[in-house]
Amino acid sequence: MSEWGPFLLRRLGRLIIVCFVLVTLVFVTVRLVPGDPERNSIGGFDGTEQQKEEALARARSDLHLDRALPIQYLETLRSAVTFDFGTSFQTQQPVTTVVGERIGSTLRLALAGTLVIVVVALPLGMVVGALTNGKRRGLDVGFSGVSGFFGSVPPYVMGVILVYLFAYTFDWFPRTPEGGWTDEILPALAVGLGPALLLARVIRVETLNVLGQDYMRTARSKWLSSPRVYLRDVLPNVVAPAITIGGVMFSALIGGAVVVESIFNRNGLGRSLIQAIQLGDYPLVQAIALILGLTVVVVNTLVDIALAAVDPRSMVRS
Amino acid sequence: MSATFGRRKQWLATLLGTPTGIAGVVLMAVLVLLAIIGPPIWGDAAVKSDFLRTLLPPSTSHPLGTNGSGQDNLARVLVGTRLSLLMAAGSVAIAATIGLVSGALLVTVGGRVQRIGATIIDTWLGFPSILLSVLIIAVLEKGRGAIVIAIGFSIAPFFARITLTSAASVVGLDYVAAGRLLGLSRWRIAHRYVLGNIIDSLVVAIFSMFGQCLIAISALTYLGFGGARDGIESWTSIDWGSVLNDSVRNFRDQPASVLGPAIAIAIAGVAFGWFGDALGRSLNPRLTVRSASGRSLRSSRASASGGATANASVNS
Fold it and tell me: Which of B139, B288, B311 to mutate to test the interface with A (most CBs of A within 10 A)?
């Protein structure tokens, strides 16, 4: 029990350091971009010379380019903490407003994708594991082939193929977002299906491991019913690997969202980041890169902590 | 002589011993062949515009139809093989070099520096590589070169992690201790004893990551980071990601055209992964035994995160 204090401190320390690194990375990126960031920011500005000067001045102050370098860095840190990144040049709205409007779409995608992963992977892995426990060699080979193949198809390709099949060939889902819950299904499958199949493979192996343990023989010999055995003895044992892989997959999900959002024409953070980079809208780039990066880092830390709670040995390993 | 031959035969038998191994070898051979013969054969058809025949549906003369400029979609996919594979090769080379050198340096220095380095590498690994790559591209300005460098840099920690892990497993062995007792320098031990032993894992990783890099690069060219199309198009600027971009934009008018680039990217990603796995089994049979026991969660996490981040990145 005494390991918890130092462990949490170490994790928290690492989290803080990584956050600093992230902010620094974003800070450096904006300053290394070729040309004047503030000129890139306003892009092809049309208006009078005076309006242009005003826009440039505002861009400079929003990006803190009008101060000495160390002050600029401190200002960027303050922006990161207070989450005030000034005005987006693309939309002329405060960055906070733009992010607020678009974060919902990304969150829905991440949640729905996670739901697909859990709902598909856990039952599939456990059922296939139970069915292939020393028998049905064909199913074993077939499952590992199929799951290996679809697990390696990247979300954006999966998305394109799903849209082709289920929105164009069969007219089951909307071709462009319509604002209803049906919008969420294909994108969620696109980001979730591949990881779900990979996770199902891991869960299958863990299920086999558990089924081979002595206490399972004991449980069986006591005539405990199968569903009860699976829920009570197998499930807790597959939780640790599921959390580990789940953390990795979450980061994959966020990365996946960046491209998948543009396949599905979703107005989310990932697509906004790509547009902002292409248009040189640096206030927005800073904000979104930080949000997405911090989310991943925080989730990774939570995964490590959850893992330690489920499997205390992992504390020592780290 | 015959012993060598026998071993080689056995090696080949392991490589081709599984269905996925055979599929991986065959598909990879087809892709490499297409990369070589594609542009000379279909290069003209891929770039020849015909504004009277735009967005045609699939037919016998255009199996995947034509795009908005009347160019043959299938020809563009076939021709795009070369640039897609070359860009992936470039970024894998960059990633492997950075990863191997930084990993080897950390092992050589050892101690506290190695622990800090390992933490940095793990954090870097857990970060979606697409996020890092788009930031790097923003700095380097759009273009294919920038994409190759960005992906190479974002995938590098994967190779560094492999170098660290496999080196750590060798360093504890008796003959390395013997070398140290003989007074060999750390660098010489790293070079002579450790590198020789981790080269297998590295070769396998290079092939596995090749597919991931290709997927990531195609995602970035799909997103339009490959640079603007200039006036006169030549086949040297066609890759699967840019073909996909074109097809997705014309999804409504000509849906079938997305199949070409989508399937090409998926197959390439899977084929190199399968080939890498088969190569791993034939180079190091112990690998299969160990993973079959399903014991080493930690190492599976490292490899999963490498794959997943690459996936993600891209994928993202």
Answer: B311
**Two tokens at B98?**
């950075």
Q: Kindly indicate the confidence band of residue B294, based on its pLDDT and cuts at 50, 70 and 90.
A: very low
Domains (ranges, CATH) in chain B? 2-283 (1.10.3720.10)
Question: Which residues make beta-bridge pairs with A87?
Answer: A94
Q: B66 has which bridge partners?
A: B72
Alpha-carbon span B202 to B169, nearest angstrom: 14
The residue to which tokens 């199996």 are assigned: B63
ipTM: 0.82
> pTM here?
0.82
Do residues A161 and A211 share a domain? yes
Domain-located, residue A141: yes
Residue partners of B143: CB distance under 8 A and separation at least 6: B225, B226, B227
- Distance, CA of B310 to CA of B212 (rounded, Å): 6
The reply to whether A19 touches chain B by the CB within 8 Å rule is no
Question: A215, exposed or middle or buried, with CB in 10 Å at 0-12, 13-18, 19+?
Answer: exposed
Residue of A nearest to B247 (CA): A160
Q: Which of A30, A63, A258 would you mutate first to test chain B, the one with the most B CBs within 10 A? A: A258
Quote the CA–CA distance of B225 and B219 in Å, as a whole number: 9
Residue A285: give the domain boundaries. 96-317
Q: Give residues with Cβ within 8 angstroms of A232, minimum separation 6.
A: none
Q: What tens digit of pLDDT does each residue of A37-86 get?
A: 666 666 656 667 777 777 777 777 777 777 777 887 887 788 778 777 77
Of A153, A205, A293, the CB nearest to B266: A153
The answer to whether residue A25 is domain-embedded is no
Please count the CA atoms within 13 angstroms of the CA of B264 that sit on its side-chain side.
Answer: 33
Residue B40: predicted pLDDT: 78
What residues in chain A have per-residue pLDDT under 70?
1-2, 35-47, 134, 177-179, 220-234, 313-318
The C-alpha atoms of residue A105 and residue A95 are separated, in whole angstroms, by 16
> Do A111 and A61 lie in a common domain?
no
pLDDT digit string (tens) for B19-65?
778 888 888 889 999 888 888 777 677 777 777 777 777 777 777 77
Q: How far apart are CA B303 and CA B168, in angstroms?
A: 16
